[in-house]
Amino acid sequence: MSRLSYKIFGALLLTVLLSVGLTSFAANQLTASQFRQYIIRGNNEFITSVESTLGTYYAQYQSWNNVDNILVQLLGSNGGRLVLSNAGGLILADTENKWVGHLTDEYNLSDGNTVSVSGTAAGYFYWLGSDISASGSGYGKGMHNGQNSTGNSAVTIITEPQQQLLDEMNRSIWISGALAGLAALGLGLLLANQIIRPINILNRSARQIASGKLSQRVKVNSRDELGELAESFNHMAKNLENNEQSRQRLLADIAHELRTPLTVIEGTVDGMLDGVFAADTHHLTTIKEESATLTRLIKDLRDISLAESGKLKLEMAQVDIADIVQRQARQASILAKDKSISLITDISSGSSAITGDAIRLNQITSNLLSNALRHTPTGGQITLSLKNMLYQGKPGVMVSVADTGEGIPPADLPHIFDRFYRVTTSRARSEGGSGLGLAIVKEMTEAHGGYVWAESTLGKGSTFNYWLPVSRG
Ligand code: ADP
User: Fold this and answer.
1) Domain boundary, last residue among 308, 333, 364
2) What InterPro entries does UniProt report for this protein, alphabetically (predicted)?
């Protein structure tokens, strides 16, 4: 049993013992007192009937002669003992025939029940028996209402069968209390086990996760707080697993991206050292280009990691996005011309003042334009447009870069903004990048409170749009 089980069991045991003990004790007290009241009522009736019978007897015979039989008859099955004395305290009759002829004082019988005839005491009778308040031991005197003449509590006569009944009742109370306690304890343990079991399962699973088994999940059976805890646990485990998988993928991707330019540099340098390649401009340019690729890759990685961790510092200022778009269009037009691509700029007049980081906004537009240039064949067309647009009810500007390139397969379209994602049908690596360009565009746009999305028709071309909120005022 676990430590929590011990605690629950201990708490349960204590609660059951206390509640059952107290309830049984209270029930016992209540039964004894009710039973006493019941006995007193019966005794009162008996004493009254003895008083009246003896009174009638004395009124009829004007003496106590032969009263013994009456006394025996009166006592009947009531139990105890009846003793009668005359007004002077001389005992005349005794159902046990022991004290006749003696004085009541000798037996400490000072306080008897008066038999009055025509207003005067004709005698006293004493009903002696077991005293309920003295656990049935010794003799007691039965009086009206269980009280003697001085008002103190007097004895209550109780017969043996009555005492047996009381004992029986008390025993039953204790036994049923103990049985109820056992049942409560059993049921409580069953319920406690239901609480502890899922906790143990969660505990085991948490240890498995800690030891690196991230595929570990727990079964959610209940809809209570423990069920919610298990659900949160599974959610946490899934996130951990996803993060670990993407970390491993990222490392593999980075290693892969670094390897190609490094292999080229190493091969070229080795070739030059071995005298296979001449240390001429051509080979040195190759080394320079591959080094530039490495520098760009490292810069991109740094940008993306800063943006993803929310640590990318944006130099925010009032900028006119139309100016940025036009500047990028001018730069792209040189390359476009080289490839005989017509570059059309369509900037509708409207509000284009936004709050943003000019360098990053240039980077976004430049990335999209260089992708468009790369994917548009000779003789194709690129349209760069800017217009005002509401996005989810908010005013902003939308910049679109539309090309007449090969397009993106629908299966790839949802993933092109993922890190290192590259469309497999895309052209040779020399034409493509590291698969980080669009991921950077997405992070940068979102850091500006904007959105980016792409539309594409395979074989016809693609349009990349980004939207940014305009400055208020
Ligand atoms: P890269 O730097 O390798 O181009 P990007 O993140 O910019 O990576 O692009 C991701 C993928 O989307 C690439 O595989 C690329 O082929 C594809 N892609 C990007 N822009 C276009 C476009 N204008 N037309 C067709 N495919 C594109």
Assistant:
1) 308
2) HAMP_dom, HATPase_C_sf, HATPase_dom, His_kinase_dom, HisK_dim/P_dom, HisK_dim/P_sf, Sig_transdc_His_kin-like_C
CATH number at residue 285: 1.10.287.130
Distance in Å, CA 436 to ligand 1 centroid: 9
- Burial (CB < 10 A; 0-12, 13-18, 19+), residue 18, is exposed
Tell me the mean pLDDT per 10 residues along the chain, length 473.
78 89 90 84 84 93 91 83 90 91 84 86 83 42 51 56 85 91 89 86 92 88 86 93 87 87 94 93 94 91 86 91 94 93 89 90 95 94 95 93 95 92 62 82 94 96 96 66
Phi-psi region of 145 (alpha: psi -120 to 50; beta: other; left: phi over 0): left
Q: Which domain holds residue 423?
A: 317-469
356 and 230: one domain? no
User: pTM for the full model?
Assistant: 0.58
185 lies in a domain? no
- Please identify, by atom number, the ligand 1 atom nearest to the C-alpha of residue 407: 25
Residues 286 and 341 in one domain: no
Instruction: Using the atom order of ligand 1, give the atom closest to the CA of residue 426.
Output: 16
